[in-house]
TrEMBL record:
<protein>
    <submittedName>
        <fullName>GCN5-related N-acetyltransferase</fullName>
    </submittedName>
</protein>
<dbReference type="Pfam" id="PF00583">
    <property type="entry name" value="Acetyltransf_1"/>
</dbReference>
<dbReference type="InterPro" id="IPR016181">
    <property type="entry name" value="Acyl_CoA_acyltransferase"/>
</dbReference>
<dbReference type="InterPro" id="IPR000182">
    <property type="entry name" value="GNAT_dom"/>
</dbReference>
<feature type="domain" description="N-acetyltransferase">
    <location>
        <begin position="64"/>
        <end position="211"/>
    </location>
</feature>
<keyword id="KW-0808">Transferase</keyword>
<dbReference type="GO" id="GO:0016747">
    <property type="term" value="F:acyltransferase activity, transferring groups other than amino-acyl groups"/>
</dbReference>
Length: 214
């Protein structure tokens, strides 16, 4: 087998990227919380299939950078200015409506997702307007150890600094091994939060807001 000698280039995502692969990578950043909110990974996939081609949603192609190799996505970084976070969250409601209109999700699904998403939102500290907020950074298990995650995070930090943000923030569940990478890259824990039903009744670990001043 030929060894990989360099990290593939980063490229802006397009609407043509396979949403099932994107959803799988997003899911791995916090499987407990995504399964709690959506009920299953397959329902998350259906939601992202609608949110991805739209602009201005939490999971939009317009905020995503990819690492691809031989036509396969081997890393993603999804982030945006903090001032966009809440407008993107509101815009994501339209993705849910589209999924209901074509039968991908039922009306009951939507009510459940909305209710659980509201309860889970208390796991996350407020997103300040003057930071770059990294919503998701993920690399498939088969590609770890190649420095892809470090490359994506370093690129996001450089981009945030060049765009004049005072800091980069992200949220991560306290049992996620990615915390080691974030700490090694200079991020520190700014807050630790729990939400009663998600954490106490459904076993979702504490959430950590981590950040680095730029």
């Amino acid at each position: 087998m030929t060894a990989h000698t360099q990290t593939p280039a980063l490229t802006p995502a397009t609407t043509r990227a396979p949403t099932a692969e994107i959803a799988s990578l997003v899911h791995m950043t916090g499987p407990q919380s995504y399964d709690y909110i959506f009920g299953s990974q397959s329902k998350l996939e259906k939601f992202i299939a609608k949110a991805w081609p739209m602009t201005g949603t939490l999971y939009s192609h317009d905020a995503t950078t990819l690492v691809e190799e031989i036509g396969t996505i081997i890393g993603i970084e999804l982030g945006y200015p903090g001032k966009e976070f809440y407008s993107r969250r509101n815009a994501s409601l339209q993705a849910s409506i589209k999924a209901a209109e074509d039968g991908s999700l039922t009306e009951q699904d939507l009510y459940g997702i909305g209710d659980r998403a509201d309860k889970a939102s208390y796991l996350n500290a407020w997103v300040p307007e003057d930071v770059y907020y990294l919503m998701a950074l993920a690399v498939p298990d088969t590609q770890r150890g190649r420095g892809i995650g470090k490359h994506l995070l370093a690129s996001a930090i450089d981009k945030a600094r060049a765009d004049g943000f005072r800091a980069l923030h992200l949220d991560v569940l306290s049992d996620n091994p990615a915390i080691g990478l974030y700490t090694a890259m200079g991020l520190t824990c700014l807050a630790e939060t729990i939400a009663p039903e998600p954490c106490r009744d459904h076993g979702i670990p504490m959430e950590m807001r981590m950040g680095i001043t730029l």
